[in-house]
């Protein structure tokens, strides 16, 4: 290898590192950094490399990307979400592709170019959207579930595109014959069944033998060989290499080696995919970008706005609320990473001109740059638009008014909410439920449950269900943002009602009680109490004594469970327990508990251990002795000051 070529590779990698670091700081995905690196090091920049030089290595990145996509592709999950995946997902892809094709045809593109453009525009970014939804804690919300369903179908739709693109290249100058499509489908089905047989019979045995060798190098090499061999097989059939890799990944995805395969192949995939996106960046002709910058901006607005309108319209058509439809539409309005794969393959097959591909790649880059902001603010934008549209009118809940004065209102109908409802029903206690999952609400209403669809964070909906008449309100969801909005509203609208709140731990206990909760039930603490009761029972402690102790802890609001010994990763803002051993010369030895100003130290004396025995909350006249171990509770800095006081005065 020439020394100059090596220096150019090193400089390209340095640019990639700097670009990733800078873009990550402002919340943009690494894909954009790779594209920027390609622009700088390609023909539009320093011209260190040509796009063709990177093509072969970059294609391996696409193969490994499709292999890992196959690993993550869960058939059971797809089947569980089949209604939204194949209903909403297919409608979105088909409608977006067809409408984009019509616009492209009207702009003078031929039908093959229009089909490629439509397919590329129809796809959204799975990696970006899932990451952002997970960061916001929205994956389990309705708009998060709808977004995931659409993304699942889009990933699945890549497979027929991989079959179709080579056919389009073979028939570029003549109408595509149905016989060619039928032959390609036959080849795809043949490849699928052959690989299915291989996956059920040969691959498990192969990886069993590899696993027994306990050689990580052999496992990695075997994974790469399987991905590339299956890709070569489908390419030999006249199909895409990426299609074979996807099938192999899908077959191995159901095996016990799935997680290990993902972990082993990820470094290679990330590196090669980085090179792939760098090669895409090299496709950008910056002179063309500057020449057509205003057309690119217009296309960007049309793509983002058009996709959002299409998705919103489809969701409203199937009965989704306005707010959820807007949130989902904004989350999926960008162009995805697989669009780059489609565009790159189209260019390599000669289906798109350099001018068209440059403009589309630039539109995709800009739309992905907007994606983080759109996803993070999708809910806020939806609420703002809903306020303008409705001006206080509510149509998200079935109109109901109740004057039942012994009513228990359950907010949230997940597993916890359903369990509470079952026990209330057996005791003939009247209750009413609000939930934001339309599927769950429909199923429960068919079963005769008094449940209604509505957002518990909206004052009008809470008033409409007659919450002011409730004697008790149970908030069963743990999403902190919704909880912060719903709890004060409930307290304001139903000041006489007892409000019970479920949380995951005791980190926000004081805040929730201050906001109006009469009782906060931390899951981790209640789980600890149940485990403790079983341990004590198995150790022979009488049941009556166990129940008495558990009831005491609940009456004292879990005070005995609030403090804990800190570890290396403990949050410094939380209170923790700290043990202080009094040596002979300690300041506190010989003094009574009352002699220490605990309020000034802002710590609590929880217990004293002496000669193996522990005394909780000792009396004020208790005299400290050398060898006593004091268990004090407070925040870390206060504990340090308290220990210094007890030992040195």
UniProtKB/TrEMBL annotation:
Residue ranges crossing the lipid bilayer per the database entry: 6-23, 30-50, 56-73, 85-105, 111-134, 146-169, 175-198, 218-236, 271-290, 296-318, 330-352, 358-375
GO molecular function terms noted in the UniProt entry: antiporter activity; monoatomic cation transmembrane transporter activity
Keywords noted in UniProt: Antiport, Ion transport, Membrane, Potassium, Potassium transport, Transmembrane, Transmembrane helix, Transport
Record-linked Gene3D superfamilies: 1.20.1530.20, NAD(P)-binding Rossmann-like Domain, Regulator of K+ conductance, C-terminal domain
UniProt domain RCK N-terminal: residue ranges: 405-522
Superkingdom of the organism of origin: Bacteria
GO CC annotation: endomembrane system; plasma membrane
An annotated GO BP: potassium ion transport
Subcellular location: Endomembrane system
Alphabetical list of NCBIfam families matching this protein: 2a37
Family: Belongs to the monovalent cation:proton antiporter 2 (CPA2) transporter (TC 2.A.37) family.
The name this protein goes by in its record: Monovalent cation:proton antiporter-2 (CPA2) family protein
